[in-house]
Amino acid sequence: MEPTTFEDYVRERGPGLLRFAGVLSGDRGTAEDVVQDVLARAARRWDGISALDAPDAYVRRMVVNEYLSWRRKWSRVVPTAVVLEDSEGADFAAAHAERDALARRLDALSPRQRAVLVLRFYEDLPDRQIAEVLGCPVGTVRSHVSRALTALRVDERDPAAACSPARKGSHDGDH
Amino acid sequence: MATTDDLRAVLRAREAYAGDIDALLDRLSTGSKRTHRRFVPAVAAAAAVVVATAVAVTAVTTSGGSDNRQSGSPADGSLSARRLDFAVSESTGVTPWQFAASPAEQSVQLTYKKMWMQLLVYSPGNPDAAPYALHGVTVGNQVPGAEFVSVAGHPGYVGRLGDMRSFPPASLASPDDVPGNELAWQYAPGAWAIVTPQGAHPSTTDLLDVASAVDFSRHTSLRSAIELSDRPAGTRLIEQEQTYARDPWRTVVTYGTPSDEQEISISAQGLQPGPTAWPNTVPVTVGGLEGRWDAKQQDLKIFDTDRSIELDVFAERGTMTLDQATAVAKTITLTADPAHPKTWFAANKALP
């Protein structure tokens, strides 16, 4: 059941939107700015948005687009020349180092690639819905995912992920 | 090669960048913008720690299967000082970053949903919580407001352990300043574990999520930033604490005599900004490095200022002379790059 008033919506969904924007941007200030701008616009059109079947999905789409737009406006992508070593083994410290490196490689991705990964692996959306959010073909989504995972050096054929019913189900309809 | 589980964990860690909903609501109501448009360094540092400490606990050795994953070797005897006798599954969103092991208790500092919590696992019989009758419904009568819960089929409750501590004869050790409810559960007959919030207010569901991530059918290998060529004379390893966070990283190992008359703590950590004067100490040189000896505190500090590292040999109990402390210090080999725990030594081999 979606909240009915804008105030109810912000109180109920606002923290989740901020988390989502934080994961997208990796920057608290950007997250707050993006969500604030989106909510300010949403407030003016709330009657129409709240009448939609899924207002929250619509607002999240606004967050993604605002983030991508914001990145273009402010152009804060910093090129990195750091070559990160691969993990040597699967133990505590190796995994620690791997994730530390992975976090830095994630920041080096293009905003759109990062948005695709956040929608796929954080929001657990199927490719079809990701395509709807980004306004692009499903094939483009898959292409972004593939290239981003390659850049991150992430093996998508991870057995644990493949065997997880929830995750498997999330993308079955698209593959 | 990273896995998609690693990616999910890294993305979850970025929730630390979420921002302040109350401030956002205020600004929305007034139509104002944020005062500081750029990233606040302190927040960046905190978030970086969360990311940098995203540690996979899946890399452990299975110590024996069981239908009941909360049962296992710890219930069969004392815990170990050389490893954790359980594992924490990070796939649930729980991010452990500090580990302490001793025969009496083992602990993990962790982050879950941006909340800092501590997991404490006690060896069987320590403490003896039998009087609390957690197997039955009487717990509600003994701890006002307690909520009876089940963790993988094992009895427990959520409540204020501070209330429980007033009951004789035993007490479940826990910080006195716990802000909210804690979860205590009996993971095996006579063996207890506790999830304690540290400056956070997790819900019962959050506490149960953390408890459910604990797997007693596996153990967790640890790494140490230092290797010792020998242990202090007459002692054995009784405790170690390993903090894998890049800043501040830390290794603390404690050796004690069987009679508990003497305990010597040996530690290495990133050099913290501190006083430039060291009252009541005398300057010393150990292995070409400058240090300070505090005879009253029986504490030898050695500084590698080029690498911003501090080594410490400290007698927590008993007596220790400067010569003895120096001898202990000379047994220490520090890993080449302590800021990267991947380079740390396997604790079960590095700590005699």
Largest sheet of chain B: 14 strands, antiparallel
The percentage helix of chain A is over 70%
What form of chain A results from the Cα inertia axes? globular
Number of strands of chain A: 1
What does this 3D model show about the protein?
The complex is a heterodimer of chains A (175) and B (352). Chain A has 2 domains: 68 residues; 79 residues, Orthogonal Bundle (Arc Repressor Mutant, subunit A). Chain A has 10 helices and 1 strand. The C terminus of chain A is likely disordered. In chain B, 17% of the residues lie in helices and 33% in strands. A 14-stranded antiparallel β-sheet of chain B has the order 7-8-9-10-6-5-4-15-16-17-21-20-19-18, covered by helices on one side. A two-stranded antiparallel ribbon of chain B has the order 2-12. The longest helix of chain B is centred in the first third of the chain and has 12 residues. In chain B, 44% of the residues are buried. Strand 1 of chain A pairs parallel with strand 1 of chain B.
Topology:
The complex is a heterodimer of chains A (175) and B (352).
Chain A: H1 6-25, H2 28-44, H3 46-50, H4 55-74, H5 92-108, H6 111-122, H7 127-134, H8 138-152, E1 154-155, H9 159-163, H10 165-172
Helix pairs in contact in A: 1-2, 1-4, 1-6, 2-4, 6-8, 7-8
Chain B: E1 2-3, H1 4-13, H2 21-30, H3 41-52, E2 83-84, E3 87-88, E4 95-101, E5 105-112, E6 115-122, H4 139-142, E7 147-151, E8 154-159, H5 161-164, E9 182-188, E10 191-197, H6 204-212, E11 214-215, E12 220-221, E13 223-224, E14 226-228, E15 236-243, E16 250-256, E17 263-270, E18 282-286, E19 289-294, E20 299-304, E21 309-317, H7 322-329, E22 332-334, E23 345-346, H8 347-350
Antiparallel strand pairs in B: 2-12, 3-11, 4-5, 4-15, 5-6, 6-10, 7-8, 8-9, 9-10, 13-23, 14-22, 15-16, 16-17, 17-21, 18-19, 19-20, 20-21
